[in-house]
Amino acid sequence: MFADLTGFTSLAEGLDPETLRTFQNALFETMAQAVARYDGFVEKFVGDAVMAVFGAPRAHEDDPLRALEAAQAMMQHVDALSASWAPRLGRPVTLHIGVHTGAVVAGSLGHGAGSAYAVTGDTVNTASRLLSAAAPGTVLVSEATHAMVWHRFEFAPAAELALRGKTQAVRVHRLIGVRSELASARGLADLGLAAPLVGRGEAIAQLLAAFDRMQGGQAQVVSVVGEAGAGKSRLLAELLARLATDSRFAATGVRRAACSSLGEPTYATFGALFREAYRVDADDSLEVARHKLQQGLRALGADADETDAVAQVLNYLLGIEAARPSDIEPEQLQRQITLAARALLERRLAQQPLMVVVDDLQWADAASVDLLGEVVDQLADRPLLLLVSQRPDARPLRSGRAPCSTIELGPLDDADARALVSHLLGAPADAGIKAVRDLVVARAGGNPLFVEEIVRSLAIGGALVRTHERWACAARYDALDVPATLYGLLLSRIDRLGAEDRRALQEAAVLGAEFDSALLQRIASEPRTLEAALQRLASADLIRADAAAEPSSPRWRFTHALLHDVVYQNLLLTRRTELHQRTGRALEALLDAAAPAPIDGEGRSPRRLAELEALGHHWSLSPDKLRGARYLLAAGDWARAVYANDDAIRHYERALRTLTEAAVDPATAAPGSESEREIAQLDARERLADLLGLQGLRSEALAHYDTVTGAVERRPDPVRAARVLRKVGGLHWEAGERERAGACFRAGLEHLGDDGDPIERAHLFQEMGRLAFRAGDNATALALAQRALDEVPVDAAERTRAASVVRAEACNTLGVALARLGRPAEAVAHIESSVAQAEASHLLQAACRGYTNLGVLYASLDPQRSIETCLRGLATAKKVGDLGFQSRLYANLAVAYCALTNRCEAEGIAAARAAASLDRRLGLLDHLAVPLIVLGQIYQCHGDHAHAFASYSEALQLAEQIDEPQLLFPCYDGLATLYLDTGRAEQAETYLAMAQAVCERAGLEPDALMVLPFLC
Ligand SMILES: Nc1ncnc2c1ncn2[C@@H]1O[C@H](COP(=O)(O)OP(=O)(O)O)[C@@H](O)[C@H]1O
Ligand SMILES: [Mg+2]
Question: I need a surface site. Which of 111, 341, 414, 504 has the fewest CB within 10 A?
Answer without folding.
Answer: 111
